[in-house]
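subagent[fold] <- orchestrator: predict structure for attached chain, return tokens only, no commentary.
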Amino acid sequence: MKKNLLILFFIILILAPINVFADTINSFKMEATVMENGDLRVREHFVLGGTYSGFERIIRYRGLNSRPFTSDRESLEGSAIYDGDRLTVLSVGENNEYELVAPGVPSAGDSDKYTFRGDVIRMYNPSVSGKDFYIEYIIHNMAVVHEDVAELGWQIFSNEMVENIRNFEVIVNFEGEVDDLRGWAHGRVDGNIEIDNDHALLTAEFINANTPVDIRLVFNKEAVKDSNKTTNMVALDTILEIEKEWAEERNKVIRRMRIQRNLAKLSIIVGSILTIPLTYKVYKKYDKEYESGFKTDYYRDFPNDYGPEIVGYLMNKKITANEMSAALMNLIALKKVTFEEEGKNDFRLRFVSDKSKLKKSDQLLVELFFEDIKKGSVTMKDINDYSKKNAEDFFNKFNAWKDEATIEAKKYNFFYEGEEHLKYLLHSFLLLLLFGIGLYLYLTIIYLITPFVLGILFAVYVSLIKKRTKEGNEDYAKWKGLKKFITDFGNFEQRDLPKVVLWEKYLVYALVFKNAKKLARTMEIKVKEMPDQQVNISAFNTYYFTRVVSLNSSLNSSVTRAYTSASSSMASASGTGGGFSSGGGSFGGGGGGGRF
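subagent[fold] -> orchestrator:
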């Protein structure tokens, strides 16, 4: 269990950052130029993460909810005056230009093609091609000329951008000579705007999907001397007043976000640190095994007389097809079932006892193999054929046998059956909740990964706890010693081995320990090395033992193959720079998009 948890830890550690950001736009760069006639010429280049057949880019040149322009303050907060007139697509595909085809013609998997209708560009460029996306277009008549200044109000994205964006960068240049440039960016984005003499630069490390982002630039009218969009308003003082209010509102949001992030970081750190002592507490109280009085490495006798399926439950707290094979072999060792060779590489088993004198799980075993599969006797071929033709019946009867064997095993009180330790799963849920909060607030990756990994690992650990009782652990230590003895059977001298007559019984339990093949090969070699006199004295002969060894392997293969076949059949049926201000979504333009 500890080995599996360690492997899981490293897998999550490697894959979690990938999974968090796989379906994002990894890089989005845009260069826009305000032309002297008021048009906005835009070039954008972006790279997607994850898998996709292409990308649909929506480029709005009008706001989705533009109010009519009424020459008042509200019109400068967002109105139709900031809308463009139309959109012209100049190029799609930077070095290898895509082919423009009729809308609806390309299909998923096509490459280097695009369709354009209205304000939607659909680009076919699958991720297997490893190409970037490039678009160049013009939004006509975007700049606004007031009585005192000129202005660009441009919504870069509306809430139609359904992709998260990392490494966002937009630069706005001017074709004409610009003077006294001021600028503001808006949206619930932790970004920044820098104003230089002749350009503005917007940057953000991360933008959540469905987040409107826009920019307002104010500059001298001469920079757009050929523009014909005028308002006859003296606008600068009102614009400054509006942006001041939005900046103050944004600062409140930033302060609130910083408090939220710091609280989230603190909670994640405290929650993660508490996992260490909590894990130790759970381990000490619910998982740490009692110390056994059995101290030696090997146990050569059989610690108890219960069947191999009970031993399987003791060792692993579950019963599998291996235990069913072992239970059948145990009936053979007890002379309740006889066997004989049936042609090449096959055996016939025959039930020769009174079923009513068997325990319930053995009765179910007899009913399946000696009544349902074939009346009285059964071959390995019969078992295989039945499991294929009657998969559901075999599967259900195996489960009925397993359930009964489990009931019988639980009577020995090997394990604590209480579920009190499961209450600690709440701590895992808390850690995963903190992970979700951190993801929502976009904390750095180290804060995201730590609670996620710890939450998953702690939940797995608590769920897998199966502590043995003091008596159960004592039996476990002895059976573990027997397993080691069987594993190292070939290392012992002949004089140190038990009587040959007991070897058949060792084979029964070797099936449970999953080292039966190795033991069988070793026993064949050992028995052939023994003097004939010793074999005869033991009422044992090489031929009989060879057949037992062969039966052991054949029976286990047949039962496990039948179970696997039945299981598979059942499964297949199932302004001057700074941070962004409040607002976002008020100006003309916008749009977004997403992969397909």
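orchestrator: received. Logging for downstream: The longest strand covers residues 24-34. DSSP finds 15 helices and 21 strands in the chain.
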